[in-house]
């Protein structure tokens, strides 16, 4: 029964087995597929590594199906009683087609056995290893009379490596194209030099021929002929004199011709402008479509990866909780301390994954906002109750207040509003030192257009924010303090998600801060029923004293 609980609810998954100390099977949660050879399964039982906490073995292909052997020791104190073992079937990646579209058709990704053995494609098929052992970094090899360039990275704590390959001819195609362009440019330069020499020779002889033809036409009474001066010598003077003689006859015609040419040039310019405008509009539409497609792909990727990451983290937290409860045997104080740290780290990872999931849902437009009415003071008190243990552990005073005599009602999703306040209060506590103060106040206010708002002001006496960071902190994965030596945890998603949630409910979040003095974040939501005028002072909830004032009154 215990083994059955470890087996996922699918008929295609191989059984989980309990082996004795000699790797002989004792119990199994099911049966292996009939096409899997028994000797291949037994070879994987005996070859799968089992360090102190369990481990993975090389990729195997029993019966032609990709499988990952996993084993972990079963102990009674320090004595190994046996092993828990499973050959986990590897199904083709659901994202194989999207990944191939992202990296291009000339690039192939493998999961390889680093110390020798077959490689596995994204579609869970077997490929013979072209090298006996996968080296780290860049290397090359030949397969089917084709040279390939590849790069490998070992996966920590596993016998596997990711290998990305591309044909060497594809990798060298761009340099070869560049060399061909260089040769073509050199040939063009030579042709241009020859053409320049020919034009220079013509420039000397052509003026004489033009002047002779124009003189003949003038003698015959044709005053339409013109000779381009373009010179400062005697030929140029003669040409200018000839042009002045014929100019009086052609002045009227030239004026009309000039008007025609001006109109024609204006029409051509207008046509070019229209062509450029149409091309710019087409390029803008294409760029917009590509940006939307890239954003959707990113959101889908974040949602999928966050969900897949959350499942093993939940398993880690669950098994850690079982160990803390002593289900598998007595736990020493030192072990309990380490298990507590693993448990808290797992919970922190789940919170980070939830933030990534929320961001992906917001960007993909799948996050649902409940349209209801909430009570401001109740929502603020609920957020304070969640964060009070954190504040008490750090020695930070935490208070809640309301500056209106009557209850304030806002339009929005109370759960999402509480989530926003929890994010703001958590940040305030994180960046406020011991003996500091954090408070959340709710009050009504109306803007210049008469629109009624309910405002939640979260104030702290922490380290503050630099002026040039006040807007950037609302961008995803951006924090006020960055670098390898920063002293505060987090991935920089809380404020980005909070502002987007506030705007989805018709409100917004503003920030004021003075470095070294503190910060004030104000959540603004539409008031219900035209509420928004300021009322009398209300009492506190939380008993931590009067709220601090960082930037003055609202």
Strand content: 15-25%
Discrete helix count: 10
Coarse structural class: alpha+beta
Mean of pLDDT: 79
Task: Indicate the low-confidence ranges by residue numbers.
Answer: 482-491, 531-554
The amount of helix comes to 40-55%
Which outline best applies? flat
For the termini, the CA-CA separation is 62 Å
Order of strands in the sheet with the most strands?
8-7-6-11-10-9
Which features characterize this protein?
554 residues, alpha+beta, six-stranded antiparallel β-sheet, six-stranded mixed β-sheet, 19 strands, flat, disordered C terminus
Give the helix/strand layout.
Elements: H1 2-6, E1 16-20, E2 25-28, H2 38-47, E3 55-56, E4 67-76, E5 79-89, H3 96-103, E6 108-113, E7 119-121, E8 126-127, E9 137-143, E10 146-154, E11 160-167, H4 168-171, H5 173-219, H6 234-324, H7 333-364, E12 372-375, H8 376-394, E13 397-402, E14 409-412, H9 414-430, E15 437-446, E16 452-460, H10 494-504, E17 508-514, E18 518-526, E19 540-541
Parallel strand pairs: 13-15
Antiparallel strand pairs: 1-2, 1-5, 3-4, 4-5, 6-7, 6-11, 7-8, 9-10, 10-11, 12-14, 13-19, 15-16, 16-18, 17-18
Helix pairs in contact: 5-6, 6-7, 7-10, 8-9, 9-10
């Amino acid at each position: 029964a215990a083994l059955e609980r470890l087996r996922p609810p699918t008929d295609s998954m191989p059984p989980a087995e309990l082996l004795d100390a000699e790797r002989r099977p004792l119990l199994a949660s099911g049966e292996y597929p009939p096409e899997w050879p028994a000797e291949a399964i037994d070879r994987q039982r005996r070859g799968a590594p089992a360090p102190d906490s369990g481990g993975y073995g090389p990729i195997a292909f029993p019966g032609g199906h990709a499988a990952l052997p996993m084993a972990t020791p079963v102990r009674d104190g320090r004595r190994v009683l046996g092993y828990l073992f499973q050959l986990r079937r590897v199904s083709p990646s659901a994202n194989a087609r999207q990944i191939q579209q992202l990296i291009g058709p000339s690039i192939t990704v493998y999961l390889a056995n680093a110390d020798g053995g077959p490689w596995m494609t994204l579609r869970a098929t077997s490929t013979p290893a072209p090298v006996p052992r996968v080296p780290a970094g860049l290397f090359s090899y030949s397969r089917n009379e084709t040279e390939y360039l590849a790069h490998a990275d070992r996966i920590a704590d596993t016998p596997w490596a990711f290998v990305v390959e591309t044909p060497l001819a594809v990798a060298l195609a761009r340099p070869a194209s560049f060399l061909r362009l260089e040769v073509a440019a050199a040939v063009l330069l030579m042709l241009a030099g020859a053409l320049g020499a020919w034009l220079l020779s013509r420039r000397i002889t052509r003026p004489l021929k033009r002047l002779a033809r124009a003189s003949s036409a003038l003698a015959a009474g044709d005053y339409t002929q013109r000779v381009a001066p373009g010179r400062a010598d005697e030929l140029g003077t003669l040409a200018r004199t000839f042009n002045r003689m014929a100019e009086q006859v052609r002045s009227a015609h030239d004026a009309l011709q000039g008007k025609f040419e001006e109109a024609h040039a204006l029409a051509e310019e207008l046509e070019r402008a229209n062509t450029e405008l149409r091309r710019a509009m087409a390029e803008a539409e294409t760029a917009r479509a590509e940006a939307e497609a890239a954003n959707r792909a990113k959101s889908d990727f974040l949602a999928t990866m966050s969900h897949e990451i959350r499942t093993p983290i939940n398993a880690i937290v669950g098994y850690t909780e079982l160990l803390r409860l002593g289900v598998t045997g007595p736990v020493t104080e030192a072990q309990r301390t380490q298990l507590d740290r693993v448990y808290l780290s797992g919970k922190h990872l789940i919170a980070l994954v939830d933030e990534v999931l929320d961001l992906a849902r917001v960007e993909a437009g799948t996050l649902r906002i409940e349209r209801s009415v909430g009570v401001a003071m109740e929502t603020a008190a609920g957020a304070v109750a969640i964060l009070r243990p954190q504040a008490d552990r750090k020695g930070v005073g935490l208070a809640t207040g309301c500056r209106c005599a009557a209850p304030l009602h806002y339009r929005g999703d109370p759960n999402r509003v509480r989530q926003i306040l929890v994010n703001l209060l958590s940040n305030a506590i994180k960046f406020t030192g011991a003996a500091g103060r954090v408070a959340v106040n709710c009050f009504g206010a109306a803007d210049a257009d008469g629109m009624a708002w309910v405002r939640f002001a979260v104030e702290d006496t922490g380290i503050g924010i630099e002026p040039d960071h006040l807007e950037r902190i609302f961008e995803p994965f951006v924090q006020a303090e960055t670098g390898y030596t920063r002293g505060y945890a987090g991935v920089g998603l809380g404020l980005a998600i909070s502002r987007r949630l506030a705007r989805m409910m018709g409100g917004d979040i503003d920030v004021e801060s003075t470095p070294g003095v503190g910060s004030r974040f104000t959540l603004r939501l539409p008031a219900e029923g035209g509420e928004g005028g300021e009322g009398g002072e209300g009492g506190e909830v939380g008993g931590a004293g009067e709220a601090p004032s960082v930037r003055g009154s609202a």
